[in-house]
Batch of 2 targets.
Target 1
Amino acid sequence: MSLLLLQDAAANYGAFAAIGAGLAAIGGGIGVGKIGGAAMEAMARQPEMQGKLQGSAIVLIAFIEAVALFGVVVGLLGVLK
Amino acid sequence: MQSNTFKAFLAIIFLSFFTTGFADSKDPTEGEKEFNASELIFHHIGDAHSFHIASDLSVPLPVILWTENGLVAFSSSEFHHDVDGKTIVEKNGLKFVNLHEKIYQLNDGESTVSLDKDNHATNAIRPMDFSITKNIFSMFLSVALLLLIFILSARSYKKSGDKMPSGIGRIMEPIVVFIRDEVAIPNIGEKHYGKFMPFLLTLFFFIWINNVIGLIPFFPFSSNLSGNIAFTLTLAVITFLITLFSSKKYYWKHMLWMPGLPVPMKLFLAPIEIIGMFVKPIALMVRLFANITAGHVIVLSLISLIFIFKSVWAAPISVAFTLFISVIEVLVVAIQAYIFTMLSAMYFGQALEEEHEH
């Protein structure tokens, strides 16, 4: 039964690609959430550092996001194949 | 009081979507081609040989090809909007077809293009394509806009002398100063930053204006240039080359023979650092490409909801979400331009690092 389901999914690249993109989004979400939380906490402790913290938080988010976006791109390639 | 009436109105619209919206979606429209959302989306984010405006209205763009019979140029209107390879254009004794916005040249003696099961042509080759496509057109447009903006701001600086500039110079100054004070100086350092400012400013404004052009949904704009991987690849390669050419001894020493570590660890780290050197520009490339493409895909998917549900009641929801995402996208396109510039500056800073700065 499960084998049949798998065969069905394998015939349809899109399903696998969507699962992959979703998993990548989970990872990215956790990472961005942790950075956002920590940045907010730091800003609340030291409001005078807000500018610097915001800048570095955005750059760190860009690093995390890149990994999630790799997932999206690989997913897209899977669909377009 | 007024806001209560407004809320009630919103609630009615919202509820009516759930009642009639799904009821309507059941009756099939006959005779029409089945709506395919992914086809529409890929058509919109891809490059094209003509600028599509409305259903039958489009602006043809020149097709310029380098073939064995020399340079061939003709208007893309000669394909009559055909992208399935059925219309054959004969120029210089060669036959060309447009197959999914890729120009193919038919082999000698062939009169129709034949396809294998993956829709690739089997009896045609692709000549070198130098066409002014939608993306190239949009790149020229952005270059023209940037020239206009910066020549005007230079003129306004000249006119005002030592005083604060008036007009467009006053708008551009804070952005240029921001790139200098927040991006270049902290990352590259007071000593060397001047050399990199022209590149960083060009990078920032070029990416930004192209991202914004992608967000404007009508004719001279609306292309997806910064969501094209060739465009981001070029920018990332330029950053990579500048990093390499401005690198100092310390950069290579840190990469190949990390000081202050035991020898086995040095041997272990060197390959990782070398891979990292190439991964950085690849990440730059993919980040910009995927962010902008994802933005376009989200907006188009939300618009497609109307056609997927086949109901006018899906429109308020779809338009509201599209507006919401578009507002976020205005932020995202600026942040992406900033991040690309910021990371480029960081890589230059790393390449220029010197021993005593540790």
Target 2
Amino acid sequence: MRITQGTFSFLPDLTDEEIRAQIDYAIEQGWAIGVEYTDDPHPRNFYWEMWGNPQFDLHNSAGVMREVLACREKHRNLYVRVIAFDSTRGFETTRLSFIVNRPAEEPGFLLKRHEVEGRHIQYTLESYATQAPAGRRYE
Amino acid sequence: MAEQRERYQAGVMPYAQMGYWDPDYEPLDTDVIALFRITPQDGVDPVEAAAAVAGESSTATWTVVWTDRLTACDRYRAKAYRVEPVPGAPGQYFSYIAYDIDLFEEGSIANLTASIIGNVFGFKPLKALRLEDMRIPVAYLKTFQGPPTGIVVERERLDKFGRPLLGATTKPKLGLSSKNYGRVVYEALKGGLDFVKDDENINSQPFMHWRDRFLYCMEAVNKAAAATGEVKGHYLNVTAATMEDMYERADFAKKLGSCIVMIDLVIGYTAIQSMGKWARRNDMILHLHRAGHGTYTRQKTHGVSFRVIAKWMRMAGVDHIHAGTVVGKLEGDPNVIKGIYSTCRDSFTHKNLEQGVFFDQDWAGLRKVMPVASGGIHAGQMHQLITYLGEDVVLQFGGGTIGHPQGIQAGATANRVALETMIKARNEGRDIWNEGPEILAAAARWCAPLRAALETWKDVTFNYQSTDTADFVPTATVV
């Protein structure tokens, strides 16, 4: 399967040039930019690991691109995303978030159905990857 | 003293002389201000008509009453302070009326509207009356909860950023069994939509009772989440005959793990505020379908403009509101729609007469409402939709998803690919307004569902003159 989180997951994987263009856009808006990675792409796993702090007051995309490449190099078989933060009043939140690296094989999710009273079912989503201990996922 | 005696002699006196017209009045920061479009009956002086509206929407009755003198009546009288002809519309006048904040109960849309639109719309000396806009003082806004979730928190909960959200309404809107209905939901969500939606008149009919619908829809939502790794949702319409029924349905939706429920505007302001509070207490996004609004918002001379309804709904506390598409099948002049979207999404809305916005409005930190664009839109219009409506909007392609020749999943994929392609191109600095069709065509070369969508709906436009347009610059609907 292909996880479709992030702003551009329905498009072919972005090339480095395309990633750079999106970073340039975010910089133009005055946003801060971070790089994050995870081995657990559960849709409610909000806190991916931070690849260092977000970068503020950027003038060009070179520095962020270096971090994207370094993170991708180190975590070639994990999910990596670029995330842009807007500090403007009324937003103060993420404004752009897109995946820039994914594992070769994406095992996806198990949907567990827990049948309770009546016809009521309680659902639980579980990343297949997290069935292996941390450090041994996507091997 | 003699003056006061004269003023309070029994009998009838023009409203303007009773104190409801004060051309020197400077509105206070704490006043509620209403702007009415007044069409007086032939021979009725516009100033007297404006004073009558001020009187009838605040303290007055048709004759002098001595009991006024037991109160601080000067303060409680609304004051018409400005009357001016509507440009290009003979016989119509804009009239500005200020109301003291003490006239209104805190946090109550019902009370606010009982005054402002309570009696006056049937008043005989007027041919027609329309409430065009309102300025709500910060002090009064702060007594309202506002949207239970708001755009920012909704996006954080859904983990979806940087693009409009995508939705669709299940079709046919009536008649499907619950099981078949859930099939449509699953296909559309798996294909790439973020939300699917009950229509306004789906409640609990013989062919599909609500509990059944909720159960099958949540199976669809969870299955689609597992298939895509995304948070998905279905607006379960909890509209019902009584508050007790609505709470029961909403509680069931919550128990099943739904992230969103839906209500219709026809349930009324008080019921909407109750559901807004319920949604805040229960971490639920609250979608409002504006069912019924066209009966009083569409005609320019009489009724309440949708701008005002949107303002009231932001105060009442909903997270989504249908607010027009510009390009689709339903009423929507581009400028007027911009004004409505600003009302939903700004932290501070600036006066903009071209967009029908008559006042600066400080929103006092009230959360933002996500506008929903729905009705006769398709993937081929993506560049126009993003240009007109921006990023914080739910684009709903009902027919444009379910009517796709290759099936519902393909329809959803076509819309999602068109959307992501266009956002990517915009961010790259391309001129999507002019290059939009090319950009879509390029994506259609590798995306067969998009190719089929563009081919099927390539010539569909709804190019009619809007009835609700701004008065200060004549504009036609551009498609």
